[in-house]
Write a structure and sequence with these properties.
A: about 240 residues, Glutamine Phosphoribosylpyrophosphate, subunit 1, domain 1, eight-stranded antiparallel β-sheet, five-stranded antiparallel β-sheet, 13 strands, B: alpha+beta, 12 strands, proteasome (chain B), nucleus (chain B), Proteasome_bsu_CS (chain B), Proteasome_sua/b (chain B), Proteasome_suB-type (chain B)
Chain lengths: ~240, ~220
């Protein structure tokens, strides 16, 4: 099925106004987010790169943010759309707080809200160009889910977006288990992030790891992973690839 | 800057297969629990089966976001029905509602392929099979989704439904006993998951009979 942006407004399904404001492709993008459940809560990792096409334009983009008291949101895709989503969520949390009834939105509710926002925007042919990961803990209940830009959503014990789906999830499927300690969880996430760093050209070696438990959440200071580039195949990459020139 | 995506599409196919078999006093509805996109498996444990009423269950494959929207819409419509009529909707009524709901979005369809199964007003098993825009048919058994091309001919061969051209009209329900039908469903999914990469991980089977609704699971290939 193909939907092209029609140049003639009279033939356009949506009218000229909405037509000109649709996101047809992203500008500044973030790459993979990887997250998993562990013994006491959720761990999430994302690097801090913001790519402008293939140019590494920004290097200190925080792609994981706390939402309310119990949730943590990670985003890949268009950075400006992510910031717009954060605005929606701020308003959502604020208006919920104004009831002053002691209730608060948990990760499940926030994830469901995001699901509806993403799907609603795709129905208007004006998507928010993101893959979102939502993790949290409320009343001892761990929650980890994801939404794509067209509204596809699910929960799992571990999730990843973009390249992470190809490179991180196979590792997670092999090594993840219910009783991961905090240290082992971080080790597993770093293993995934290292593979992504080596193999995903838009990944950078400056990342944050976020933790959320019943007690609260912390997002780490940016740090780098140890890498090893001295493999012989890296020393002379053109050796064995004989060209005519 | 070069365009990175060739063209944005509001649709995706998340795969999966659904089967329903109706008997004289039961109905079996089954679907696998794999959710995929392209060559990626997104999750191995996503239920495609949705209970719409006490005696009516829908299994759907296709585009997950549309399926979820469709399920929520039908749940809301069923709630209104209960408030207005003080009873559960019958399976044939739900079948018509599902058709109308799909056709309402004829020019921006729900990309979902459904089978609806349950018991009719006489307590007899019934199955309704759909396309994405709402044309539907009452049958004795059916299959939809990515593995339907492998499953449907096998069911045809095993169950030999009477021709709809016969006069007087023959009953479409299968002659199998409940346990035999469950075994058949397990076999078709085990077979489909051998060749269809979008079918696998786990099989969820829902059985509806006079006693109520029962759920069973069986492991399928995970590769």
């Amino acid at each position: 099925m193909q939907f092209t942006a029609s140049k003639q407004p009279e033939n356009c399904l949506l009218g000229p106004e909405s037509d000109s404001q649709r996101t047809l492709y992203p500008y500044v993008t973030g790459t993979s987010v990887v997250a998993l459940k562990y013994k006491d809560g959720i761990l999430m990792a994302a690097d801090m790169g913001g790519s402008y096409g293939s140019t590494l334009r920004y290097k200190s983009v925080e792609r994981m943010k706390p939402i309310g008291k119990h949730s943590l949101l990670g985003a890949s895709g268009e950075i400006s759309d992510f910031q717009e989503i954060l605005k929606y969520l701020d308003e959502l949390i604020l208006y919920d707080n104004m009831w002053d009834d002691g209730n608060s939105l948990g990760p499940k509710e926030v994830h469901n809200y995001l699901t509806r926002v993403m799907y609603n925007r795709r129905n208007k042919f004006n998507p928010l160009w993101n893959s979102l990961v939502l993790g949290g803990v409320k009343k001892g209940e761990k929650y980890l889910g994801t939404v794509s830009m067209i509204g596809v959503n699910f929960e799992d014990n571990h999730v990843a977006t973009g390249f992470g789906n190809h490179l991180a999830r196979p590792i997670l499927r092999q090594e993840w288990h219910e009783n991961l300690s905090f240290e082992d969880g971080v080790k597993l996430l770093e293993k995934c992030m290292r593979v992504l760093l080596y193999r995903d050209r838009s990944a950078i070696n400056k990342l944050q790891i976020a933790k959320i438990t019943e007690e609260g959440m912390t997002i780490s200071q940016p740090y780098s992973l140890k890498t090893y580039w001295e493999f012989s195949a890296f020393e002379n990459p053109t050796q064995g690839a004989v060209g005519s020139w | 800057m070069p365009k990175e995506q060739a063209n944005w599409s509001p649709y995706d196919n998340n795969g999966g297969s659904c089967v329903a078999v109706a008997g004289a006093d039961y109905c079996v509805i089954a679907a696998d629990t794999r959710m995929s996109t392209g060559y990626n498996i997104l999750t191995r444990d996503y239920s495609k089966i949705c209970k719409l009423a006490d005696k009516c269950v829908m299994a759907s494959s296709g585009f997950q976001a549309d399926v979820k929207a469709l399920q929520k819409h039908l749940a809301a419509r069923h709630l209104i029905y209960q408030h207005q009529h003080n009873k559960q909707m019958s399976c044939p009524a739900m079948a018509q509602l599902l058709s109308n709901t799909l056709y309402y979005k004829r020019f921006f369809p729900y990309y979902s392929f459904n089978v609806l199964g349950g018991l009719d007003n006489e307590g007899k098993g019934c199955v309704f099979t759909y396309d994405a825009v709402g044309s539907y048919e009452k049958v004795g058994y059916s299959s939809q989704g990515s593995g339907s091309t492998l499953i449907m001919p096998f069911l045809d061969n095993q169950l030999k439904s009477p021709s709809p051209l016969l006069l007087p009209a023959q009953d479409a329900v299968t002659p199998l006993a409940e346990a035999e039908a469950i075994d058949l469903v397990k076999t078709v999914f085990a077979s489909a998951s051998e060749r269809d990469i979008y079918t696998g991980d786990k099989l969820e089977i829902v059985v509806i009979n006079a006693d109520g609704i029962r759920r069973e699971y069986m492991d399928l290939r995970k590769d």
